[in-house]
Specification:
mainly alpha; Serine Threonine Protein Phosphatase 5, Tetratricopeptide repeat; elongated
Length: 123
């Protein structure tokens, strides 16, 4: 291979890499906020993420998500409902579970199971 053809090939490869590196990526479907970190802390470091703190953080995340016109990810309303339940606020818990089921119908079995356990624990 001649020096000119090597330079041409390297230039073409470099240009292709630069162009592909500049390609725009689609924005994420959901705005996750601190949800994933809270769930991680809850299970990996029990006691670190108190229910009251989680309710406050998740509520603020939900407000911001909606204000930005973005979508709430699956699980957020269910987790928030669980935190409300732990705090003894059953009405708020049920509202969050209903919202989760409405936004994500595939969560119906999970939510129904949680509601059944809530009712059983309340008796």
């Amino acid at each position: 291979m001649t020096r000119v053809s090597q330079v041409t090939i390297l230039t073409a490869i470099t240009a292709a890499l630069l162009i592909s590196g500049c390609a725009t990526q689609k924005p994420p479907i959901y705005r996750w906020g601190q949800y994933e970190q809270l769930v991680y802390e809850m299970y990996a470091e029990p006691g670190k993420a108190e229910p009251g703190t989680q309710v406050q953080i998740l509520s603020e995340d939900l407000e911001r998500t909606l204000a930005e016109g973005k979508r709430v990810p699956p699980g957020v309303h269910a987790h928030l409902g669980y935190m409300y339940f732990i705090q003894g606020n059953e009405r708020a818990a049920m509202n969050e579970f209903a919202t989760e089921r409405q936004l994500f119908p595939e969560s119906t079995m999970l939510i129904d199971g949680m509601l059944e356990r809530m009712q059983r624990d309340a008796q």
